[in-house]
Amino acid sequence: MPQDIATNALLQKFNSGTVDWKAGRRAFLGSLGAFAGAAMIGPLISTDANALTVTDTNVLNFALNLEYLEAEFYLRAAFGKGLEPSDVTGTGTLGPVNGGSKVPFTTSGVRNYAVEIARDELNHVRFLRSALGAAKVARPRIDLKNSFTAAAKAAGLINGFSTFNPFANETNFLIGAFIFEDVGVTAYKGAAPLLNNKDVLEAAAGLLAVEAYHAGTIRAVMYSRSMFDQARKISNLRDSVDGPTDLDQGIGDVTRANIVPTDANGLAFSRTTGQVLRIVYLGGTDHGGFFPDGFNGAIS
User: Based on the number of CB atoms within 10 Å of its own CB, is 122 exposed (0-12), middle (13-18) or buried (19 or more)?
Assistant: First the structure.
């Protein structure tokens, strides 16, 4: 199968040694997370599935949109500022980021986790942008303020005219991170069959692994703090907006831990790009939630 332009550029960088495989593997996913979204190709790509030929470039740009979201969330939480202007340009409409601030962490361990994850997500963005070259999409408009309140209300975490700020304190930060992390893992796994080049697939597997480490860390910390109810409500919300399937899992309860959500075979489950988009759009069909104007790129 012919390779698209971005795939050829990526392979040239791998073969020339200009891409650090160790750094690249740590950097290649971040959500999804979040690969945290919705629309579809058949069940995989939104808009006009029959008219769209999926290329590795399409899939990597889909991942880049998710990495923008995760990077902006964690960088603001850990350092009080987001991506640099040089890290967000590309094709499509460049959008601003609404919300986000440095979290007043009270536990050194959680603060250190946030700093490490933020640096990973920044590396993911830069790795994908370098791999895609001129084909990379710009960061779309991202909402880190109203979207969290809408999600918290829909999940039943807050009521009435209350607002939810994931940057207000350590507990809220963990809840906000939990909304994203499992989505990224399932998104990368679900996107794997869409990739044509094995070298690109191997790099994507490295990204998936990093996202899984992130998700496991957040789930374990939440479990240690008995945040069972919050996790269950968010899990139910993700299941309610991603379609008729019942895939998501909470972190367990006081008698049984569920740090790693798996199927009967002990395997992580997958989400289609359509299911991922519906989550990050908070049920919207082509935009909404964390992406008020939708994704940039073919899969949106």
Answer: buried
* Cβ atoms 54, 44 nearer than 8 A: yes
Residue type, 109: G
The answer to whether residues 83 and 139 touch, using CB atoms and an 8 Å cutoff, is yes
Q: Report the greatest alpha carbon distance in the chain.
A: 57
Q: Could you give the CA distance from residue 193 to residue 270 in angstroms, rounded to a whole number?
A: 11
CB 296 within 8 A of CB 138: yes
Cβ atoms < 10 Å from Cβ of 286: 15
Q: Kindly state the tokens that stand for 21.
A: 């495989």
pLDDT tens, position by position, 81-99: 999 999 999 999 999 999 9
Taking the CA of residue 232 as centre, how many other CA atoms within 13 Å lie in the half-sphere pointing to its CB? 8
Backbone dihedral angles phi then psi of residue 271, each to the nearest 5 degrees: -125, 145
Conformational region of residue 49, where left means phi above 0, alpha means psi within -120 to 50, and beta covers everything else: alpha
Query: What pTM value is reported for the model?
Result: 0.84
Contacts of 62 (CB under 8 A, 6+ apart): 37, 191, 273, 295, 297, 299
Question: CA separation (Å) from 140 to 76, 137, 153, 239?
Answer: 17, 8, 24, 25
Is residue 169 pLDDT above 70, yes or no? yes
Count of all residues that appear for the chain in the document:
300
Residues 6+ apart with CB under 8 A from 274: 37, 38, 39, 40, 41, 43, 44, 45, 46, 243
Give the pLDDT band (50/70/90) at residue 24. Answer: very low
Residue range 193-214, pLDDT digits in tens? 999 999 899 999 999 999 999 9
DSSP conformation class of 51: G
